[in-house]
Amino acid sequence: MLETGIISGSNLSPFETAFEQARLLLETEGVAGIGAALALVETAPIETPGLTKILARSVSLLLDAFRSDPLAPEAYRAMAATPASLASQMFDLTLEGVFGNGERDVRAINQIGLLTLVGLLSSAGAHEQAALLLAQAREHRSGNPALTKAGWVARCRWAGCSAAFADHLEPAAVDFADAGAAQARVDTAPLDLVAHRGRIRFALEADDLEAADGFAGAALSLPVGDSDKMVLVPDLALLVAVHAASGDLAGIEADRLRWAFGVSPGIATAAAQAIEWRMGESGLPFLDTAEAERAATLLRSFVAPAKVPVITGYPMRDGKPHVDIVWLEITNHCNQKCTFCPDMFREDARTWLPLEKVKNLIDQLADTISVGSMQLNAYGEPLLHPNIAEILAYIRERKLPFPTFFTSHGMTLVDKKLQQLSGNYPAGIAISLHNDSQQSYEATRSHKIGDYETLVARVSALMRQMAFERAPSHLRLYQMVSNGAEDQRVDELTRSAFPDTAGRMAKHVRKWEAIAAEIAASAPREARARAVTNSDDAIHRAFTEASHGDRNHLPILIWVDADGMEQHAFMSARPVGTYANLLLEYDPRWAVERRLVTDNSCGFTATPSLAIFATGRLGICCLDLNSTATFGALDDFDTLHDALTSPEALRLFAQLANGVAASRGCQICLGGTERHCESKRLPRPTRPAGHFREGV
Questions:
Q1: Do 131 and 218 lie in a common domain?
Q2: Radius of gyration for the chain, computed over Cα atoms and rounded to the nearest angstrom
Q3: What is the 3-state secondary structure of 156-217?
Q4: Residue 307 lies in a domain
Q5: Beta carbons within 8 Å of 549's beta carbon, 6+ residues apart
Q6: Within this chain, do residues 54 and 110 fall inside the same structural domain, yes or no?
Q7: Using CA of residue 635, residue 637, residue 641, residue 643, what is the dihedral sign?
Q8: What are the pLDDT digits (tens) for 17-73?
């Protein structure tokens, strides 16, 4: 710290000396020196030359601090040490820098400027203005941790209480030395609620509200009763109270915590009561009565009356549960055994849904569920269903309010199946093409079912029929590529079976472009079919940027359907590791980390999905081979609407959104996998006898 009088032998006035000392403090100590620097110039008249430069430099340092870290504790310490009289001037300087002479609209303020303005208003004692500015900002920036912290600090300064969460925790004995010890206990004993409480408390003591929210969601979602979770109530009550005081009850209403409280109704009620009790004891000085009432009311709203689900995992739209995509697995039979697919290791019995059951499900989906799209398979080859023709015809007759698709491995496209598809096309058909040669075919598919040229002929016949009949349906050809770093999750022979260079990919695409050109040349005039030739750059981009997200499609054939709409046949590249993690459970060279509590969440909770498996079980993931992550079965509920709005479905959403992997299938994705070192490595997985060439 610089002291008065360090600048000697000069003719500077006292104020000029103070300004120079303040300038040096800001230059040497940065944002940490703001409080001391401003204390030196606090008494200077506003018109004193040099004061504006000191204030402007202080504002610049605050902006830089928030730019580096939106939660910047050093910036908040600096603003807490800023004299009120100077804070108001710094606020005016910041406001002028943000808007100039333009209209002062809060939507035009970026996050850095907003955090600085709110902090300076609090430092100036303009607490109501700070609260109003934050409220206006939240209308356009919901769920922002930086704004939540800004609101919390501003509220505590207004209330004249500590802004450290730790100072508001109720005393409790925590049997862990630190956060790491609590985490280690959760890893080894995931149902230890005392350890979960330790994680929450340590996060709060570190002023990390976001981490505390995550730990709370995981603890509430554990597959244990509310009586076991009661130990969490005091800290959960504080967590909710902090959100309320910060003007961020929306953080509690966000799906993860809303679902978690929804599956723990006793805890939600007890936390509401705890907030009310602490308010009566003046134990929450930062919270006013109205905010406490709103927080308690919100918690009680999570408790559903009997038979009336207030909270559902699936979002409700016009009284209907909404599903982005439905996987209606009409059959789990498959007559292929592909090395990149785990279906060969299926443990569930092979079966199919009866025709009348499929029709009933289609009716329910159309009439009682809001659906984005439907796939006629999860695993399984849909064209093997004995009533596939009737199913497709029924879909066409029902004129469903959502599109329907299916994926086939292509070898089932015999003449009989092509006849069944004729006039009964879904909105789109996808073919798992993947192979580009006989060698590739033998390396990845069962030699009992045809060969590469047969695959090409059958897929070509489908493309020809769709173009000639002007099918109102697109055709996607999926193509695996080995386009990046060596993926150790996939065995070397399988990796080598797919295009591993852009040149090899181009050769494959050119072959299908030639097939498309021949079809276009012979198609009926009214189809207006035309072939497409892709540039080398487009093919290179599709190869190098291949992802599971399906981008950079390569069109090869276009026709005009009977309704006058253009339809496309196109190729979509996917990386060889797309389904790799699904095989690792059956690969002795790999270990699946069987963790109940993980750091990850399932994407199918953010984009709600429904898997209706051929076994009748209900889940949210199409990749769950043996349907282990389910919330019941069709026979457990009167209707699909009842199933999707059930407590069982909500529990699955709460768990997977909060990283609780209670099923075997989910632990593969959320828990993670690890390859054994050489000393532990075992032989490759045993594959079904007789299905692959020798050595494959």
A1: no
A2: 32
A3: HHHHCCCCCHHHHCCCCCCCCCCHHHHHHHHHHCCCCHHHHHHHHHHHHHCCCHHHHHHHHH
A4: no
A5: none
A6: yes
A7: negative
A8: 888 899 999 999 999 999 999 999 988 888 887 899 999 999 999 999 999 998 888
